[in-house]
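Q: C-alpha cells for this one, please.
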Amino acid sequence: MSSVTRRPSRANDRREAVEQRVLSAVEELLSAGRSFVELSVQELADAAGVARSTFYVHFADKTELLVRLAEASMADMFAEGERWMTGSHEGGQDRLQQVCSRIIADFRAHAPLLRAVGEATGYDPEVFRWWRARIEAFIDVTAVRIERSVAEGRTDPGLPVRPTAALVAWSIERTVSMTVVATGPDRDDDLSAALARGVWLLMYGDPAGRAGVPGDS
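A: Here is the predicted structure, written as C-alpha cells:
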C-alpha cells in the first residue's frame, strides 16, 4: 500500500525535474544571445537533454514553455510591487524607491527572458494576452489602492482611478523593460528615483512625499 502512495510522488518528481531541465536550458540559450523566435523545439530538447517527444509531453508548444518560464521568473517582481500597493505607504518616496530598485534588479536578473517575452508579444497572440493579463492584474491592485486613498482623503477625489492605475502599471513596465534591455546598471539608482517620484505624484499629487502618508500605518 505504501509503495502505491509513493508512486505519484516519484512521478511528479521526475516530471518536475524534466521540466526544470527544459526551463533552465531555455534561459541559458537566451542568456547566450539566442533569439527565442529562432529556437526550434528540437534545439530546446537537445539543450535540455531530452527527446523531442518528451518535450511535448510536458509542454504543448514553445508558447506554453515561454509563458511558464516567464511566470516563474517574474513572480517575485510582481509580488514586490503588489506588496507595496497593498501595504503601508509610510516612508513615502524613499520607501517606494527601495521597492523600485528591487523591481529593476529583478528585471535585470531576467533581461534575456524579458527580451524574449517582448519579441513574442509582437507575433504571438497568446503571449500578448498572457502578458497583458498579468499587467492588468497589477492594475487591479493599484486601482483598489487608489480608491482606498481617495476614500481616506489622501488622494484627489477627481482623479480617474482606472486610467491612473493603468498609467502607473504600464509606466513602470515600459520604462523598466526598455531601459534594462538597452542599457547597463550604472544609472539604475536614477531610474528608481524617477519611477518612485512619478508613481507617487500620480497617486498622491504630493511633490514632497518623503515623510509618509499622513494617517497611514
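A few notes: DSSP finds nine helices and no strands in the chain. Residues 2-31 form the longest helix (30 residues).
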